Automatic annotation (TrEMBL):
The keyword ATP-binding applies. GO terms for biological process: D-gluconate metabolic process. GO terms for cellular component: cytoplasm. It comes from Streptomyces viridochromogenes Tue57. InterPro entries: P-loop_NTPase, Shikimate/glucono_kinase, Therm_gnt_kin. This is Gluconokinase. Keywords: ATP-binding, Gluconate utilization, Kinase, Nucleotide-binding, Transferase. The keyword Nucleotide-binding applies. Pfam families: SKI. Pathway: Carbohydrate acid metabolism. It comes from the Bacteria. It catalyses: D-gluconate + ATP = 6-phospho-D-gluconate + ADP + H(+).
């Protein structure tokens, strides 16, 4: 990528947003921000209890991520954020118009298996169905790429870097 984009690594829970986000940020030489860190405690409590978040829960979280992305405009950065709905991505773009998305996609069984082996994460596998039901994949008019999560983290990151390099310069 010729200019420092802010990349939002998106997808349902268990796709590896944090792992790939860290690796992608390192490859691009930019800072990484963990999207979960932007959640208010009330959201974490809800998700820990197995209760899906509603839009009213998500707006402050998305606004906080959008503010971080706006602050990184022209400097570059990578942030993880499920960004499952178009309206959520639109909200992020409203705050930081130059963001691009890396949508981590994959087979539900693979993602559920990975989730079941995670340690110390608040998102239970029981919420995976609601995540898939909510998911609205990137549309052709949205700046971003879809990257399959099969393979090692390094392979996934390499596919993401290659796909991002093929995007038109939007920053």
């Amino acid at each position: 990528m010729s200019t420092p984009h802010v990349v939002v690594v998106m997808g349902v829970a268990g796709t590896g947003k944090t792992t790939i986000g860290h690796l992608l940020a390192a490859r691009l030489g930019v800072p990484y921000a963990e999207g979960d860190d932007f959640h208010p405690q009330a959201n974490i409590a809800k998700m820990s209890a197995g209760t899906p978040l509603g839009d009213d829960d998500r707006w402050p979280w998305l606004d906080a991520i959008g503010a971080w992305a706006h602050g990184r405009a022209g400097l570059g950065g990578v942030v993880s954020c499920s960004a499952l709905k178009r309206s959520y991505r639109d909200r992020l773009r409203a705050a930081a118009p130059g963001v691009v998305f890396v949508h981590l996609t994959g087979d539900r069984a693979l993602i559920e298996n990975r989730m079941s082996h995670r340690q110390g994460h608040f998102m239970p596998t029981a919420l995976l169905d609601s995540q898939f039901a909510t998911l609205q994949p990137l549309q052709p008019d949205e700046a971003g790429v879809a990257v399959d999560v099969a393979g090692s983290p390094e392979e996934i990151t390499e596919r993401a870097v290659t796909a991002l390099a093929g995007l038109p310069d939007t920053a």
